[in-house]
Write a structure and sequence with these properties.
With 168 residues, the chain is an all-alpha fold. The protein has seven helices and no strands. Helix 3 packs across helix 4 and helix 5 packs across helix 6.
């Protein structure tokens, strides 16, 4: 990329990065809080993911920033390896992504059927909804998705209004 191209695209890339940062900031903070981390860590990840990465990459159709599905992954990383290991694990994951990009391994992921991706996203969505339904019914969510699924009928039964009248 020559110097003239950088000068002409810098203002657009910078503004796009600011927009990504502002849109992603609440989700970054939500992921941090849901993972047991302080909200300030979410702000830092929003700055890095939205401002720094968005500005440095310079790809016209790039999407950077958090996704709600990351909540499950970050939570498990923090629970299993602790907050101190989160940074090194994420640096390793970023290095692997960089190597895969340099070696142009992205074409291998095109063979994944869209149904597989949709199924994975639907599974994550179901896990999140089930845990939130327990909260909505004044019950404590279980530690795992299967636990939430198996405990759902009992939580629903306990939340039904006619049950409270019948036992009184």
């Amino acid at each position: 990329m020559n110097q003239e191209t950088i000068k002409s695209t810098l203002p657009r890339d910078l503004m796009a990065s600011v927009v990504v940062f502002l849109v992603a900031l609440p989700l970054c903070m939500g992921i941090a809080i849901a993972s047991g981390m302080p909200p300030a860590k979410g702000v830092v990840t929003g700055i890095i993911g939205g401002l720094v990465v968005g500005w440095l990459a310079g790809a016209p159709l790039q999407v950077s920033g958090p996704a709600a599905g990351l909540t499950v992954l970050v939570f498990e990383l923090v629970q299993q390896h602790g907050a101190a290991m989160l940074g090194p694990i994420l640096l390793l994951a970023g290095a692997l992504q960089w190597v895969a990009g340099r070696l142009k391994w992205g074409c291998w992921f095109r063979v994944t059927a869209p149904a597989v991706v949709y199924g994975m996203l639907a599974g994550i969505g179901i896990l999140i909804v089930l845990s939130q339904l327990h909260v909505m019914m004044d019950a404590k969510p279980e530690a795992s998705g299967l636990g939430n699924l198996s405990a759902f009928p009992a939580a629903l039964w306990a939340a039904l209004p006619f049950r409270a009248v019948a036992t009184a």
